Amino acid sequence: MNNKLEDIFNKKKPTLTISLNSDDLRSDLETSMLLAKSFVPYSHRRIADNYVLLRRIFSFQIVQPRISKVEEAMLSRYYFDTLENTTISKANSEIAQLKEWATSTDDNLRTDSEELLKIRVKELKFMLSENYTHTSNEVLKGYQAIETYLTSVTKYYK
């Protein structure tokens, strides 16, 4: 027994540390607004206008459908996760990537970019209609970046 009496009683006490997820800071929402302020493709403007118009009229009180398995497969084909599992910084990088793809010379990539944004809007509508995002801490905050981007696009491009 090589244990000293001091070592037994002077063990380090566990300290309480607050783990701050650096990918989910509210200050990253400013990046979403800046993405909306810089060049935005016409397809993104059209989708954002439709979203904001429906949001003002209905406020998503009606239950919206979940995304289908085909839409989930399309998200996974481009290595996108569902919106529930996306952080704000990841959502911002996805928005920037979708903006770049929307102006691509490849027709398939352009149409897929538009379809991916429509899927994101559909996910956002579902999350807001279920009111799941406001009552649960299990959901990451990527949906706020998408919502900020869509509402900011309509402000800057009227």
Please give the structural blueprint.
Layout: H1 5-9, H2 29-37, H3 42-58, H4 69-77, H5 88-102, H6 107-130, H7 132-135, H8 142-156
Helix pairs in contact: 2-5, 2-8, 3-6, 3-8, 5-6, 5-8
How many DSSP E strands? Answer: 0
By DSSP (H or I, 4+ residues per run), the number of helices equals 8
Distance from N terminus to C terminus (CA atoms, Å) equals: 78 Å
Average pLDDT metric: 81
Rough outline: globular
- Elements, N to C (H/E): HHHHHHHH
As a percent range, the share of helical residues equals 55-70%
Which range does the strand content fall in?
Answer: under 5%
Describe the largest sheet. none
Low-confidence stretches: 14-20
The Rg value, from CA coordinates, equals 21 Å
The chain-level structural class is: mainly alpha
Characteristic key phrases:
158 residues, mainly alpha, globular
Descriptive overview:
This protein has helices at residues 5-9, 29-37, 42-58, 69-77, 88-102, 107-130, 132-135, 142-156. The chain has 158 residues and is an all-alpha fold. It starts with a helix and ends with a helix. Residues 14-20 have low confidence and may be disordered.
